[in-house]
Amino acid sequence: MLRSACVPLRHARFLSFVAAHPQMRAYQQRDPRMLERHNHRYMNVHSSLRERVEQVRQHYRFALTQLPSDLFELIYVFGYASLGCLSAKDGSLLTLFLRPPISNGCEGELYLQLCDSNEDPLYSIVFTVSDEEPAIRIGCLQGPRGEGAKELVRELTRNMYGMRPKQLMLSLVYAFANHYGIKQLMGVSNEAHPLRRKGRAIFSDYDAFWEEQQGQLTKGGWYALPSTPTHKSEAEVPSNHRSAFRKREAFRLQAERLLINALVQPIPKLPDFQVPERQKAKRPLRDLRVEASWVS
Q1: Would residue 295 count as lying in a domain?
Q2: Which of 88, 66, 63, 91 is nearest to 77 (CA)?
Q3: What's the CA gap between 270 and 275, in Å, rounded?
């Protein structure tokens, strides 16, 4: 209450925005914390309260006006939208999902997940969209943790014809941005991540990955990423690796098509529209509650 009182006009405008849209009211029933997420650590430790409330409001304004209505309901009211399946090298299936923030989420408002055939998450990338000065802010790139995580990543990379999972996830965000004409992409730095704590182990180096993508560190703890991804051409690949390269590119393009198709075509609704119970709606996401988002 005290934090909301620090930005009374902006907070009131956000509450009015939610109240004015039936879909936002339905999402509020599923995740009441959505109304106060900006009052806590959120995306970047250097963001002010004023910036945080604007980021959340702008994201949902974008989502309501730009996402297909059925897709918005599946993500934010029902808790997930299945985008389709990808065939891996070994014949197994991988699935793509769009999901809302997890409980107590502080890394962004839209989860894009790569899952196995049992819908267990393998990799996630989380981002928020700003619509006034169109931009995408990436707050999380999360992979498997614990015993066997490295071997799982190696196996997944082999099954994607040598494409690293985190590279695929970033490529999908670029495809999302390109679809909406968004040129500005930013990734949170190690130092600015809201879950970073002194003395806590870091499982991956976000800074190194953004720099590998030609990102430039800016003030405020964000890496400014290139407006378009850098992809090798077939001519740049040694001849003995070109077959794998073509399969890898075909796999990436197939994944991007699944995402873009969901953004332009209606997805069948779940039967008998109703707001799911909060516990039931959040159940598929419980496995994502981790201590930190630093991944391999």
Answers
A1: no
A2: 63
A3: 11
Residue 264's domain comprises 2-288
User: Two tokens at 47?
Assistant: 């963001």
Q: With contact defined as beta carbons under 8 Å apart, do 161 and 248 qualify?
A: yes
Place of tokens 């990734």: 187
The predicted model scores a pTM of 0.85
Residues 38 and 55 sit within 8 Å (Cβ to Cβ): yes
Number of compact structural domains in the chain: 1
Bridge partners (DSSP) of residue 222 are 188
Question: Are 173 and 210 a contacting pair, CB within 8 Å?
Answer: no
CB of 186 within 8 A of CB of 135? yes
Rg (CA), the chain: 19
Residue for token pair 């989420």: 105
Q: What percent of the chain has pLDDT over 90?
A: 58
The pair of three-digit structure tokens given for residue 264, joined into one six-digit string:
């332009």
Beta bridge partners of 98: 81, 112
Closest CA to 251 of 67, 96, 124: 96
Amino acid at 233: S
Q: Residue 293: inside a domain, yes or no?
A: no
Residue 294 lies inside a defined structural domain of this protein: no
Q: List 184's β-bridge partners, or say none.
A: 135
For 83-110, how does the pLDDT look when each residue is reduced to its tens digit (9 = 90+)? 999 999 999 999 999 999 876 578 999 9
* Placement of tokens 């159940």 in the chain: 283
